[in-house]
């Protein structure tokens, strides 16, 4: 690793690390970066305060837009799945939204490895949102539980799952020498544990910093410490959403940050690195505010688009003299754009025959399309809702 950019960091120090690299069959000797504790206050410029104010106003609008829905939880479940797809793509795991939605109707043994990894995020994020709304604090214990969920059944599953790492990790060395790594995070052991516990206390302690500055600083510190063998990026981005919910700026997980960060991945990674090099948090804070503002605006547009689709469908169905279960299924397509007859039978408390007749009616009218044959049930999809969800704002 070239140590020169980090050697003079004003907010951290380099510490020696060494060991044996089994990939190359050789010992290594390098330097790892140990960040200082986070500050409780920063002197922020007027431009940074303006960026924070703009983003917070958009967050408030997104929250209000969701709460105007009769069942906002329906759309929140889709937002979590959209976040799961993009946050995993940032880490190099690519799946389509259709695959994630279909996983609701499959046994875990039927998933591909990539789908299992993304669906694990869905389960972890839903559990985390419930935890925060109880309310309970963001904690190392929570993150250990979530990390274990993220890696269950994947290549990273094993003795380290759900535990703060006890081995050294490296960033940007696929097949290369450890000494040439772009970044080597904090060594395992007491320094890592102390840094993580301080991060936990800082995240939960009220301070003078504006909320979005706290999101940015907390995310930087977590990603710099990289406390787990795998899943740090996904967990760190989830924590930002949890902070918004804990502060009651969002009542539900209605904003997916990762689609914007995925589109700006290189800049995202460079900003994190430059904080360590320069000690200047402001460009990073502004970048995070840009992400939040853009995705909050996208959330409002998404709500409007999906509500318009639902209202038009319901009006058209009334014109077709539809009533009862077909109408109830159509009303909830903005939360369940992929479904099976059995799932609708259970959700709406009707017989299999009634649910099958309702689904067939919606297929005949063009609102649903059979997507695939399942081992236990046919899977149907509402293409219009799915397209509105995944298309760029």
UniProtKB/TrEMBL annotation:
One Pfam short name: Fic
Annotated Fido domain residues: 138-290
PROSITE patterns found in the cross-reference section: FIDO
Protein name (database record): Fic family protein
Species: Kitasatospora phosalacinea
Source taxonomy: Bacteria, Bacillati, Actinomycetota, Actinomycetes, Kitasatosporales
């Amino acid at each position: 690793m070239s140590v020169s950019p980090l050697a003079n960091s004003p907010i951290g120090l380099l510490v020696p690390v060494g060991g044996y690299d089994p990939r190359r069959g050789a010992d290594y000797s390098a330097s790892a970066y140990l960040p200082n504790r986070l500050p409780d206050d920063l002197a922020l410029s007027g431009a940074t305060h303006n960026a924070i104010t703009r983003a917070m106003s958009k967050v408030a609008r997104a929250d209000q837009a969701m709460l105007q829905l009769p069942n906002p939880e329906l759309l929140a479940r889709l937002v979590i799945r959209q976040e799961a797809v993009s946050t995993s793509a940032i880490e190099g795991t690519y799946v389509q939204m259709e695959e994630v939605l279909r996983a609701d109707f499959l046994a875990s043994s039927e998933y591909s490895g990539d789908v299992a990894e993304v669906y694990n995020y869905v389960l972890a994020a839903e559990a985390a949102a419930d935890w925060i709304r109880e309310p309970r604090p963001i904690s190392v214990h929570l993150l250990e539980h979530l990390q274990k969920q993220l890696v269950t059944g994947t290549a990273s599953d094993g003795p380290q799952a759900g535990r703060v790492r006890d081995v050294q990790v490296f960033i940007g060395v696929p097949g290369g020498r450890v000494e040439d790594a772009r970044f080597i995070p904090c060594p395992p052991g007491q320094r890592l544990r102390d840094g993580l516990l301080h991060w936990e206390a800082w995240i939960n302690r009220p301070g003078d910093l504006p909320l979005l500055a706290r999101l940015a600083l907390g995310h930087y510190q977590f990603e710099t410490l990289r406390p787990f063998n795998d899943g740090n990026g996904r967990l760190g981005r989830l924590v930002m959403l949890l902070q918004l919910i804990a502060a009651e700026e969002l009542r539900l997980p209605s904003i997916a940050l990762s689609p914007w960060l995925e589109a700006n991945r290189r800049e995202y990674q460079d900003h994190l690195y430059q904080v360590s090099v320069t000690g200047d948090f402001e460009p990073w804070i502004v970048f995070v505010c840009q992400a939040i503002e853009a995705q909050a605006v996208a959330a409002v547009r998404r709500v409007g688009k999906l509500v318009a689709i639902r209202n038009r469908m319901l009006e058209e169905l009334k014109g077709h003299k539809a009533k009862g279960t077909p109408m109830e299924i159509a009303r909830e397509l903005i939360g369940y754009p992929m479904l099976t007859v059995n799932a609708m039978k259970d959700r709406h408390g009707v017989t299999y025959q009634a649910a099958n007749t309702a689904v067939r009616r919606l297929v005949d009218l063009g609102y649903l399309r059979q997507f695939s044959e399942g081992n236990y049930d046919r899977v149907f999809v509402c293409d219009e809702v799915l397209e509105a969800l995944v298309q760029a704002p």
